[in-house]
Each structure stands twice: as structure tokens, then as C-alpha cells.
Design brief:
The protein is α/β, with parallel strands linked by helices and about 100 residues long. About 50% of the residues lie in helices and about 15% in strands. The longest helix is centred in the last third of the chain and has 13 residues, at about 80-90.
Length: about 100
Amino acid sequence: MIVVSNTSPITNLAAVGKLLILQQLYSSIIIPEAVFRELTEVEHPVPGTEEVQTCDWIRTQQVANQALVTSLKQELDAGEAEAIALQCRVGKFPSFKITTDM
């Protein structure tokens, strides 16, 4: 199963020391480049910063459909937009997207 995550599930679980739950449930997760940037290109590290840089079970993947990302960014932030676009790309396989945004 392919699992795509945006930023908030990673930061929320890392903040309470439970990020490994994702690995236990799914073995690995994919994050788009925008999520990686949201977690690493910050003045002060946030929960999950170290993990996305060091954990081999969190993989970063580039989004191919930039037109979809541009459209989604009219209503969403970059990480959420790229996560949705990436999930649509891998959606031909059994997959789903983890989010806390509703």
C-alpha cells in the first residue's frame, strides 16, 4: 500500500513522540517535496524535522502534475496541494492520503 502524508500528521505525531505509529501501520510513507520543505526550511526545527531527514521509511517524491498543484494552491497550502496531487498520481495503486485537515 502506498501512503502519502502532508505536514500536519507528521508534526502532530512527532510532537507527542508517536511518529513511529506511521511506520508500524504502513511500513513507509511518501511525502511531496513541499512537505519536506515545510518541515526542513524553517528558522527553528519543528517536530518531525529530524525524522524526515533521517528516517529511511519516509521518502520524498516529486509531484509531476504541476497544473493540478497550481489549481489546488488557490485554496490550499503548498504541502497539502502537493500531497493531494501526489496521491492522485499514485492512486492507481492501493493508496491513501493521511491528513488532519478537514
